[in-house]
Amino acid sequence: MNENLDQLKDLDVNMYIISKDTPEQQRELYDALAREYGKSLPFISDPDLKMVERFDMKNGDVAYRGYGLLDEKGNVIFHTVNDHWGEQFDQTVKEIKDEYHSLSQ
């Protein structure tokens, strides 16, 4: 995913990675991704999966992979379970952009 972030740069949104990892674990991964790709999205630690649950993406004690959008007030605008971040990233980018652009219509 990190090697393809430029495909999402035209969206006027703040992007984050949410995981239940500790901030220390996230810092380690953030630093590794930044070294490997020259950048990384910032992480949000959600150890109790409260934010994940808000997106309706909780799968037992883990989160489904996917994406979603919150408005300025913290309301979920959309969410999508999607585990195609690698081999089908182009399709994922298209889906994200279609969802995003449908909001302005």
Kindly report the CATH topology.
Glutaredoxin
Rg from C-alpha positions?
A: 14 Å
Q: What is the chains' assembly state? A: single chain
Count of helical segments? Answer: 3
Q: Percent of residues in beta strands?
A: 15-25%
Text of the CATH class: Alpha Beta
Helix content: 25-40%
Residue ranges: pLDDT <50 for 5 or more in a row? none
* Termini separation: 28 Å
Total tally of structural domains: 1
Specify the CATH homologous superfamily.
Answer: Glutaredoxin
Q: Strand arrangement, largest sheet?
A: 1-2
Secondary-structure element order, N to C: EHEHEEEEH
Largest sheet: 2 strands, parallel
Q: Round the mean pLDDT to the nearest integer and report it.
A: 88
How many distinct beta strands?
6
Polypeptide structure, described:
This protein has 105 residues and is an alpha+beta fold. The protein has one domain: Glutaredoxin, CATH 3.40.30.10. Helices cover 32% and strands 20% of the residues. The chain contains three helices and six strands. It has a two-stranded parallel ribbon with strand order 1-2. The chain has a two-stranded antiparallel sheet with strand order 3-4. It has a two-stranded antiparallel ribbon with strand order 5-6. Helix 1 links the parallel strand 1 and strand 2. The longest helix is centred in the N-terminal third of the chain and has 15 residues, at 23-37.
Short description, anyone?
The protein is an alpha+beta fold. It has helices at residues 23-37, 50-54, 89-102; strands at 17-19, 43-45, 58-59, 62-63, 66-70, 76-81.
